[in-house]
Every structure is written in C-alpha cells, then in structure tokens.
Amino acid sequence: MREFVLQRGTVDGRLRKHLGTELLDASLLWAATPFRLLEPEHPTMRRTVDLIAQTLTGGSGGIWRYVGDSYYGGGEWVLLTAHLGWYWTEVRDFERARRALQWVEQAADRHGHLAEQVLESAQFPQRIGDWTASWGPVANPLLWSHAAYLILGHALQPS
Fold first, then answer.
1. Is 104:45 a contact under the CB 8 Å cutoff?
2. Do residues 49 and 89 lie in contact, with contact meaning Cβ atoms separated by under 8 Å?
3. Per residue in 120-136, pLDDT tens?
C-alpha cells in the first residue's frame, strides 16, 4: 500500500487528498500520525505537513480541513489542529505543538467542551445557517476532539 500511495497518491512531492485530484486535506496528517503509512520524517510527509500548515491555517490559528470546505461553513477543526500538534511532537517541533495545544484550549466553550470545529474563521460563513437548519449546531462536545486534545497534551509531557 505504501508503494502505491507514493507512486499514485502524490503530487509535487506531497500527498494528495485522493486519486484524481491535486487537493490537499488536513486529514492526510493521519498517514503518519497515528497510522504510520509514512514515518513523520519521511520527505513526502514533511512536505505534506508543511503545506497543510501554510495553506490550511485559518484566521484564528486552527486548521481547516481543506480549501473550499463548506461543511458548516468550513471552520477550523479542533481535532485536526490537535493532530497537527501531535505530529509536531513526533518531529520534535515542540514550540509549534504547544501553540496547537494552546489554540485547542482556547477553542473550549465555557463548559470546557470541545466542538468539532470553530466557526469564527469559517471559509464560507454564509453557509453555516444552511447546515445548522438541516442538521442542528456543530457537534459539541465531540469526544474525538477531547481525545485528540488529551493525546497532544500527553505527547508534550516530559518523558
């Protein structure tokens, strides 16, 4: 599978969202952290993560899923920001990992709950109402977001 991905699932030295596209998706972080399809230091993974950080960081510092995402307006994802921080601990970029942790902590609501995504820097704020009318508010609390926060916090603890 690794060879297939490296031969067909890349473009310009980085992973692609799926075959047939050149799009980038922050979920590609999982190819290294935690699934280890590629090691975190692999050049393809490093290039992918560098581009995620450069092009998918939203206005408040969280990570968008992909450019053009309109799901609930395309906000910044708590889960993906925590996973990016976890990746950074694995490549020993602890300063960036701590910034990701801080952003996740600031994303908590007044009850300490972490949602699926934060909508203040949504790519398409005009679409939030459509999604809310159809499906209700953004998932909150989201267990997966809380788990990613705990994993990142643990990864930042001294050994």
1. no
2. no
3. 999 999 999 999 999 99
Nearest C-alpha neighbor of 39 from the set 6, 9, 61: 6
Find residue 74's DSSP bridge partners: none
The two tokens of residue 144 are 């997966």
* 42-99 confidence digits (pLDDT tens): 999 999 999 999 999 999 999 999 999 999 999 999 999 999 999 999 999 999 999 9
149-154, long-range: CB < 8 A, 24+ apart: 149/78, 149/82, 149/101, 149/104, 149/105, 149/114, 151/82, 151/86, 152/82, 152/83, 152/85, 152/86, 152/89, 152/97, 152/100, 152/101, 152/104, 153/101
